[in-house]
Amino acid sequence: MTERAGTSPHAVSFTGAVKAFGAVRAVDGVDLTIGRGETVALLGRNGAGKSTAISLLLGLNEPDEGRVELFGGSPEDSVRAGRVGAMLQDARLVPRVTVRELVSFVAGRYPEPLPVADALELAGVTPLAGRRVDRLSGGQAQRVRFAVALAGNPALIVLDEPTAALDVEARHVFWTSMRAYARRGHTVLFSTHYLEEADAHADRIVVIDRGRIVADGTGEQLRRAAGGNLVSVDLAGRTADGLELLPGVVSVEVRGRRARLRTDDSDATVVALAGMGAVRGLEVAPASLDDAFLALTGDSTPTRAQDRETV
User: Fold this and answer.
1) Residue 293 within any structural domain of the chain
2) Residues of the chain with pLDDT under 50
């Protein structure tokens, strides 16, 4: 594996990468490195730029500016060498063949494939090996796509929204399989808009918004960066004017009769509120990853052009 994957310490490297579709810069100056053996989540809303970044990584598109490298070389070279496996949103399985036949065929196209039995076991589809792929449920078919992505024994596996449209049980089975592959020392990059999946299954979370990386770290680091705690109080007839100036306060949001203060020093914020006599219905809670995500990406919605493009 090490010899096949070259000598670069990085599995993935984006340097000033830009990709535009008309007036929309789907990827806008991205700098990103992913070390070997890391599991990284690319997190963002629909239209944020996730799928375009993945298309650049896989060599399906070329950047207009900057460069993208895998294992120190071009994406095309790494794909041809069998270092990369991918599971894309729009991938379709070949009909009228069994699961084992499909995985065996794909494995045979690679120089050092994973044994077919191992690929089936890791993806959790061994009991389905003799079944035709066009007679599978949606969750079963998604796990077969994962087995196909594993067939070449890639050093890097790329998963684009891998659990979209799966039910809770199928998602659990999928992530169990993915973690088993990652434990073998492989690099995993997956895109998702499910915050809980990113937090539970990634070593790092890279947040992308409007084609730019706006945060990169663990779930806990992202929470702290966005304001570590939420302090909520009843306004009780008062206005929210001046609350943004209190110690530690990062932002203020008013919901009905309550004010929510995002703060990086909740103790100082509460003391200041007490000094104002504004501690009615006081609640202090850690910021959730959802709160951090909203703080990092803002509250604006994608344009129609961004919605149309599968970014």
Assistant:
1) no
2) 1-4, 300-311
